Structures are given as C-alpha cells and as structure tokens.
Amino acid sequence: MRRLAGAEDEEKWLAEGIAGIQHNAFFMHRALDANNLREVLKYSALMLSELRTSKLSPQKYYDLYMRAFDELRQLEVFFKDESRHGLPVVDLYELVQHAGNILPRMYLLCTVGSVYIKSKQAPSKDVLKDLVEMCRGVQHPIRGLFLRSYLAQVSRDKLPEIGSEYEGDANTVMDAVEFVLQNFTEMNKLWVRIQHQGPGTVREKQEKERNELRDLVGKNLHVLGQIEGVDLEMYKETVLPRVLEQVVNCKDELAQYYLMECIIQVFPDEYHLQTLETLLAACTQLMPTVDTKIVLTQLMDRLSNYAASSPDVLHEFLQVEAFAKLSNAIGKVIDTQIEMPIVGAMTLFVSLLTFTLRVHPDRLDYVDQILGACVVKLSSVPKLEDARAMKQVVALLSAPLEKYNDIVTALTLSNYPRVMDHLDDGTNKVMAMLIIQSIMKNNSCISTADKVEVLFELIKGLIKDLDGTDTEELDEEDFQEEQNSVARLIHMLDNEEPEEMLKIICVVRKHLMTGGTRRLPFTVPPLVFSALRLVRQLESQDGDVTGEDVPATPGKIFQILNQTIEVLSSVPCPELALRLYLQCAEAASDCDLEPVAYEFFTQAFILYEEEIADSKAQVTAIHLIIGTLQRINVFGVENRDTLTHKATGYSARLLKKPDQCRAVYACSHLFWVDDIDGIKDGERALLCLRRALRIANAAQQMANATRGSSGPVTLFVEILNKYIYFYEKGNPHITPSDVQSLIELINTEMQSDDNGNRRTHSDPFFTSTLRYIKFQKQKGGLMGDKYDLIKL
C-alpha cells in the first residue's frame, strides 16, 4: 500500500507517527521524573510501537526513527542509574524481554544491553552475541535494518577491541569482529530482500529506496576498518573472506557494486596489496551487470597513490607480483564481460597503465604489454567511433609522455604506433600535437634515424592526408599551427655524427615529400636549414667525412637540397624556393664549391625569369639576389661577370622606374665589396650609379608629364648617399666634384619644379645627409680633410 501512496499520504502518516511518539514520550518523561519503572517501560514500548509502520519510505522512516532515537538516549540514562529504578541491570535485561511486541522489545533490549555491557557484570561478547541473535526476530527489511543500525550505534564504543576497557581474558578482538560481521551479514540479507517485495512495476522505486539505505549496511564495514587490533593476518584469514562471501553470494548488482566499493575505501592500502589475489578473484565472480571496471579502477587508483606515497613500499608490490595479478584480472573481466563497451576496457587499461608507471616506471615491457592488450581489444571493433573511448585512448597514449618527459622512451614502445593507428584522423592529429608539445616542453633531442622514422610514423596525421582527407576542409589557422609545430620539431632532430645526421635528413625528407602542396612551404624550409647546419658542421671539420653507407659530404647534401627545393618550386611557391636557392648558394660558397654555388644561382635566376611575375615580388627577389651575390667571393672572374651582368640586366628591366633606379644603384655593391678579398672595381660601380641617376631623371620627367609635378627628390638623395659611401671607402672614380654636382642638382630640384613654382618644403632625408657631411668636416682628421674638398 505504501508503494502506491502519494507524497501527501506519506507526510500525513509521518505526522501521525511523530505525534504518537511525542504523545507517549510525554508520559514516559513523567514516569522518568517519578522513577516509575513500570510506567517507563509501558510508555516507551508504546512509543517504539510507532516504528512498526510499513507505510513510510526509508527517508520518511528515518525521520521517525531519529525522533525515537533521541528519546531512547534519555531512557538509557535512566537505565544506567540503578538508584532510580531499584532493579539490578541483569534483572532489568530480563524484564524488558517481556514487552508485548518484538520491535519495541528489541529496541529496549539493545538499550538495556548497552547499559549491561557498560556495567561489566557479564562479558561483553556474550551480551553482544545475544543481542545480534535476537534481532533476527525482526525480518521486515526496513524495520530490521534500522533496528540493527541502532544496535551497531549503541555498541560501537563497547566493542572489546585493543585498548578498550572491555578487552579482557573473556573478550578478544575476534569477538568484536565476529559481532560486526554477523550484524553486517544479517543487514545485507535484509537490504537485498527489499528488491523482492511488491510488484515488479515499482522496481525502479525499490532501487531508489535501496540506494537510500545502503549507508546503513556500509557502516558495518567502516567499523571493521576502524577496530583496533584487526591486523593483516586477521583481515586476510577472517574479515575479508567473510565479507567477500556475502558480496559474491548475494547475487545482487547494487549490493555487490556498493560493498566492493566500501571494501576498497575503508580498509588500508597495504591490506589490499597483501590480499590482492583474493580481492581480484572476487571481482571476476561478480554479476555480469556489475560495473566491474569502476571497482577495479578505484582499486588500482588507491594502490597507485599508495605506491606514490613512499619509495619504501615499492618492494611490497614486487613481492606480491601486483602487476601480473592486476593484468590477468583485467584480461579475465574484459573477456567474460562480452557486452562491456569499448570505453570500459580503455578505462581499465588507463588505470592499469597509471598503476604501472607509478609502481614500475623502469619496466617498459609492462607498458608495452598494456598497449599491446589495448591493440587487441581495439582490433575487435570495426571502427572506434565512441568519443569517450577515444578520449581514454588519448589518455593512455599521453601517460608515458607525461611520466618519462622524454619522447625517446615512448619511441621504444613497439605497440605505441599500433594504438595510434586506431584513432580517427582528428584525434590522431591531436595526439600528434601532444607528442610534439612534449618534445618542445622537455627540449628532447631525437638523435637516430630509426627513432625519427618511428616518430614521423606517429605524427603522420600532421605530415600527410590520411584516408583521402582533404586539407582544404581544415581551418586555415589550425592548419598553420599544425605545420608550424612540425617545422619546430625538425629543428629538434640532431646528431653530432654527420653520417647519422644525414640519414635523419633523408628520413625526414622522405616523409615530408608526401605532404602535398599546402604543407611543403611550411616544412621544407626547416629541413633545408637543418641540412645547411650539417654542411657548416662539415665545413668546420676541415674536410669531407665519409661513412660506410652514405658519404656525408657537402656535395651529397647539396644534391639532396637541390632536389628538395626543386619540388618546392613546382608547388608552386617560387619566391620561397628562390630564397632557399640563395641560402644554399651562400653555403656552397663557404665550402668553396664554385660549381655548386653557380648552379644554385642559375636555378634562382630561372625561377626569377619563368615563375615570378608579380612586380613587387620581382623587386624583392632581385634585391635578394644582389645581396647574396655581393656576399659571395668564391666565383672566378668569368662566372661572377655572368651573374652580375644578369643581375644588373634584370634590375634595369623592372616595371617601375623608382624600382629600377634602386636595384641598379644596389648593383654598384657587386663591383666594390668592402673587405680584404673583395672586388674593387670602382669604374663599374660608378657606371651603375650614373645609370641609376639617368633612371632617376627619367622618373622625374615621367612624373612631371603625368602629374604636372616632378615629385620628391628621394631617389636623387638615395643615390647621393651611395656616392658618399663609395667616396668614404676610397673609390678613386668618385670625386668631390661628383658629390658636389649631385648636391647642386638636388638643390636645384628642391628650389623649383618644372613650372617655375618655388617649393616651400625641404626633404628631411637630404637635410640629414647634408648634416652628416658637415659633421665629417668638423670632425677633422683624414676623413675631415677628405670632406673639406666638398663645397656645400
């Protein structure tokens, strides 16, 4: 009837019950004040009769029980004082057993029993055994659970444990354990029985009520865990087997899960470790519907924390072979629970791996074994689509990286890449980014070609398209971040042995060349600079170093670089390819390889001619060519003349006159290099400047024709600064009169435009240049004498 009743009815019944307790408690208190034992027992029994109701839910029944419990406290105080009721406690213990109804009788008996034990007129074990046995008279699940909970509560401080005043010859710790175990056993039976009451339509409500009552049962295990004197031997031989017997035999999903959870939480970690086999055997005997993975996960987490608490306990794990036992148990659970979702299995593997990394960090074979088991499980499902399972796999793969702070260690795990193969493309990239971030964070250096091969297999999701995925679909910002990470990674690959470093470069190149047109502009430059670093290393060793397999010579490396940049130029990405060709040319020059440097320049000029059409890109490219050629001194006269002729020719053919002018006067530096071995052809340098001056004049005339104004004199001032530079450096073909004439030309241009209108503003660049000349005049010395020849 209760189960079909509404909340309003329950509130009414609770109110009636509380009113009945208060009514009878009033008369009981009057009897207590009068020290009238007969009336006290009468009204206390009537008061406790209100607990006989079957109409209330556990929550409401608890409210009623607490009202009665408070009154029983007062009653116990009365029973303790023999002078008030005039009856020896033994006789009182007999007297309360004559109460008419069993439930009030048992509450009164437990209350008097508490006083009886405290009086020490009988061994506590006898009284406790008597009470726990007689409580069997109440078999209604809810009433019986609360009665036994009351018994546990009033007897907690009267157990004959070590250090207790009730311990003695007749009372031992075993008696205390036996009492708690028996009470636990009976409470568990009552708790499980609730599910079999009432029609099946209210099963969900029954489960909710059982959840509300579970702490009453679990408190017994908490008491067992707190009893002083329960050593490992007693726990192993008595406590754990008796508790597990109840857990396994009750065949109830909720009870098994909750009680296993309690066992793991309330007993010491060292006890779990020493009884691991027994505990794990029980896990495999639980009902198939019990979420065993959470139980095992909690157990492994506790053991992991125990291992991390002190290095001194690690030898205990070795003695009991904890890893082997846990691994076998997890394997059995996964095999027997066929319907366990893949996320459950992955969660177990993550917990086992966490345990292993804390307890056996040096046993990489254990780590690889776990990863291997994970591969087997993942292989049994067609495709991993569960996002939660994917998250657990990422956690599994991340754990070794976080523990060892060294990707090199993870690269030795043969099953690591096999696990990654089961990730989808998006998660594979996330994992690859985590690997690269770990390398960057820990500044790890990958120093062998074999490890680089494994590493690039792990991060292949970033290097190439997987399963035909299109890079066009990726967010541009995310894509750039991924490729920049790969670029940073390439700089972390290093080996002081040139032969091995060349092998690393070849392995990286092999992987990068599969990246597609969008990736190469990000990944080829760091590869090129890594190879150039090796070239300079070889150069510093004064001679070529050869190995057994691949000769690590600058010539061999430049061949690889030429092929690599050629692929980049066909992407197409000609501006970047041109820059890299020029970098290689400069490196070849440093190695005194004139033909190689010439070939790189040739490739750069071909790109300029055939691929670079944008006028701005042409300007940038020609200045890069001029700057690089100016720094190179390896070329003979013929080759240098060919290249400088090409450079000056391209400079004069730029689209815009100002760009032509600036490129041509920059070419003057190709004929006058200010170092000891540099070329010093002052006449050709002057020719470049004069040619630039003609172009500047033409630019002024064009500006005047199109806009009616000659525009600023910036180009003339820039050329003037070049004249001054070469004049300072001692070019004999630059005379003071040349500088003076150019200054006068600029002044003329500054004074008026072609229409005869006087300009009202001055050029700050020109003003600064004149100030510099005056400063040099005032400075004195040889340079001052030189500048005195220039009349301002």
Automatic annotation (TrEMBL):
- Which biological processes are named by the entry's GO terms? intracellular protein transport; retrograde transport, endosome to Golgi
Q: Which residues cross the membrane?
A: none
**Coiled-coil features, chain-numbered ranges:** none
> Which GO terms of the cellular component aspect does the record hold?
cytosol; endosome membrane; Golgi apparatus; late endosome; retromer, cargo-selective complex
- A Pfam family (short name) is Vps35
Q: How does it sit in the membrane?
A: Peripheral membrane protein
Q: Which InterPro entries match?
A: ARM-type_fold (IPR016024), Vps35 (IPR005378), Vps35_C (IPR042491)
List where in the cell it is found.
Answer: Cytoplasm; Endosome membrane; Golgi apparatus, trans-Golgi network membrane; Prevacuolar compartment membrane
The highest taxon in the source lineage is: Eukaryota
Which of UniProt's keywords are assigned here?
Answer: Cytoplasm, Endosome, Golgi apparatus, Membrane, Protein transport, Transport
Similarity annotation: Belongs to the VPS35 family.
Classification via PANTHER family:
VACUOLAR PROTEIN SORTING-ASSOCIATED PROTEIN 35B, VACUOLAR SORTING PROTEIN 35
Give a short account of what the protein does.
Answer: Plays a role in vesicular protein sorting.
Q: What's the protein called, per UniProt?
A: Vacuolar protein sorting-associated protein 35
